[in-house]
Design goal:
25% strand, metal-binding, mainly beta, 224 residues, 3-stranded antiparallel sheet, copper ion binding
C-alpha cells in the first residue's frame, strides 16, 4: 500500500493523499527474502499465470502472525547455525538438496553448520515460473510474569502462518460442500433440514433431575 497525491473528484483543485494498492513482482531469491528488521508488504501472494473466470491471477496469500524477538547479530559466529531467523519470509526455487532450513547437527558445530540457510539465497536464482518453496519464520517471545501461575494464558502468546487461496477459485468453494444445509426462514425447528433442532429426540441420553445448588450449607461451618 502506497499513498498517492490525487485530485479530489468533487473538488478538482484540491489534492489529498489516498492509499493505493501497488503490485510489484519479485523475480529473484534475494528480492523475495524479507528480512526480520524490514517492513513487510501488507499482501504477499504466490501467483501463477493462470487466471480465474474474473480475469485475476490465481494465487495463494501468505498471512504471517509473528511476535518474535530480535535476531542474534550476524557479527556473531554462532549466527550461521540459525541464519533462517534473519528472514520473516523467504521464497526460493525448489531443489531436492534444500530440504530443511536447519539441521539437528548444527548444534554440534555452530560455527561451521551442517546446513546454512543463507546459502539457499546467496545464489540468487530466478523464481519466475518455477516450483517454489516458502520459508516462513514465526514465533513469539514470552517473558514470565505473575499471571502465568498456575497456567500460562495462550491468548496473545502465539504465532503462525495462514495459506489462503486468493482468486484461486471462481467463488467460495465451500458452497459446493456435500453436507451444506440451506435453511429458509420459518424452518429453523424443522427436523428435515436442521437435525440440531431435534437433537433431544434423536440423542440417547439419561434423564437427570433438575440441578440445584445451595452453596456450602451443611458442608462447611465457619466459627468466629
Amino acid at each position: 500500500m502506497e499513498y498517492v497525491n490525487m485530485s479530489l473528484p468533487w473538488m478538482p483543485d484540491h489534492y489529498a493523499m489516498v492509499p493505493q494498492l501497488v503490485e510489484k513482482q519479485v523475480k529473484t531469491e534475494k528480492e523475495a527474502a524479507l528480512r526480520y528488521d524490514t517492513k513487510t508488504p501488507r499482501y504477499l501472494h504466490i501467483a501463477s499465470n493462470q487466471t480465474n473466470r474474473w480475469g485475476h491471477n490465481r494465487s495463494y496469500r501468505l498471512q504471517v502472525f509473528s511476535f518474535t524477538g530480535d535476531h542474534l547479530p550476524e557479527s556473531q559466529a554462532e549466527e550461521k547455525s540459525m541464519s533462517w531467523a534473519r528472514y520473516k519470509v523467504a521464497i526460493t526455487k525448489h531443489k531436492d538438496l534444500e530440504r530443511t532450513s536447519s539441521s539437528l547437527y548444527n548444534q554440534n558445530n555452530m560455527w561451521t553448520p551442517a546446513v546454512d540457510f543463507s546459502k539457499y539465497i546467496e545464489d540468487n536464482e530466478n523464481i519466475e515460473n518455477e516450483d517454489l518453496v516458502a520459508w516462513v519464520t514465526t514465533g513469539f517471545l514470552h517473558i514470565p510474569h505473575a499471571e502465568d501461575i498456575p497456567n500460562t494464558v495462550t491468548v496473545g502468546n502465539g504465532g503462525g502462518v495462514i495459506l489462503r487461496p486468493h482468486n484461486y477459485f471462481d467463488e467460495d468453494p465451500s458452497i459446493h460442500s456435500a453436507d451444506g444445509v440451506y435453511i429458509e426462514p420459518g424452518t429453523e425447528d424443522s427436523c428435515e433440514n436442521n437435525r440440531i433442532a431435534c437433537l433431544a429426540q434423536e440423542a440417547c441420553s439419561p434423564v437427570l433431575e433438575p440441578f440445584t445448588y445451595h452453596g456450602f450449607e451443611g458442608v462447611m461451618k465457619f466459627e468466629d
